[in-house]
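Exercise: predict the structure of this protein bound to dinuclear copper ion.
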Amino acid sequence: MRMPLFRGMKRWGVLLSALLLSSLLLAACGENSPSILNPSGPVASKEAGLFWFILIVATIVFVAVEGLLIYSIVRFRERPNSPAPIQTHGNNTVEIIWTIVPSLFLFVVLIGTIYTMFGLTSFSSSGRPLQIRVVGHQWWWEFDYLNENFVTADELHIPVGTRVEAQLQSNNVIHSFWVPELFGKTDVVPGHNNMSVFQADKVGSYRGQCTEFCGLQHAHMNFYVIVQSQDDYNAWVTSQQQAAAATPTDPNALAGQKLFLGSGGCQGCHGIVGVNLQDYNHLKGGGDATVLVGPNLTHFGSRRQIAGGVLTWDPASCVVISGSDGQPKIQNPGSCGLYQWLHDPQAVKPGNDMHIGTLTDTQIAQLIAYLESLT
Ligand code: CUA
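Solution:
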């Protein structure tokens, strides 16, 4: 009996169109997500090149195999009174051809991959390489500038066109360090120091993400790489190297500092150089990772990401005003990320290490006034 071929093809056509349309719609959802296909540095460019190379090889194989398959289905479909097809089982020539040809394709992919892998860290740069230590915590990133001698969190500033050599360390579980537009994934393994070498060729802000499941808040372990001109970067480094003011001038900030330093206060987990830390070396405790549980807050006011990128810190959204009782409070707590964090960190990011008692709105406003002063 003859197959209703045309009707079948029409159905497949509809299905294929629906799939293509839905993939277009889904692609639009991710317009704010960083993509490896949008490289902004030599390492990411080489990796994207390898992706396209493998895609082209795979497409040639796909089109050839599926083309032959469809041709065979149509050309050799069953017809009335057609004889049994010729049996080719045990044909050595055919067996050898379909073993060697796919192996050749895989070999081409292997050569391309090895060539890219070994050339990944060879690229031209200006100036001396920047040496940093990246420590994966549960669940935030610490960036230790080894030669400049300061430590920061959640935001990695680098100068444009400079080679960055990042030592990757963890004192807890396995994380993975990835900035899609700058470099591929490298695992951050406790007891085994890995390395990630990269460079950014365009000024801008690049989102990074932990990409190895590391516990409850793995998805909330983001960070940003802020790529600056050499002059802007130098100015930023100079500001980071300075200790915080021992005594803030604003009365609310001063009250916030007292809370920070109070018994059972924030200083049990956080450090501020010039306040409860003599210098950054005290933060490191002479060892690899910091001795403190939480991020150091020495220049917190200059950062824009908090709590591993779950919330943003924007002073304009956290205006401290004087309430009807004369006490300070936050004008619009709903739009202030830092208020939400200090109000209930476990609600924002369940399972994180920040276990604090309930703070009053006045205390939160004082702490925010203090943290804002730490630029
Ligand atoms: Cu750290 Cu996932």
